[in-house]
Structure prediction request, 104 residues.
Amino acid sequence: MSTLSQLLRTTEQRLARAGIDDTKLEAELLWMTALDIDRAVLYAQANDEPDDALSANAEALIIRRLRREPIAYLMGRREFYGLDFAMAPGVLIARPDTETLVGE
Prediction:
């Protein structure tokens, strides 16, 4: 079994090989979503080994991301203009340019 730190690095490498940008951030988001924890807990538990069920949850999310499913859909939420929105396939994902447009 691997530690969470090792799993994060492996996830980053897999995302990079698939040509996905921001691999460190995306690996963190995928594991935080799978484990239902925040970033502070993620790094506090970096030397722990997640149980098989949680690792399977993460693997399922990683596979979906490698297939280019948007990270917002995988996380089930997205912050926009200071508000938290539920996300699911079929929901338009606000982009940074959208925030500029709303501001204008």
About this structure: The two ends are 51 Å apart (CA to CA). The chain has a mean pLDDT of 93.
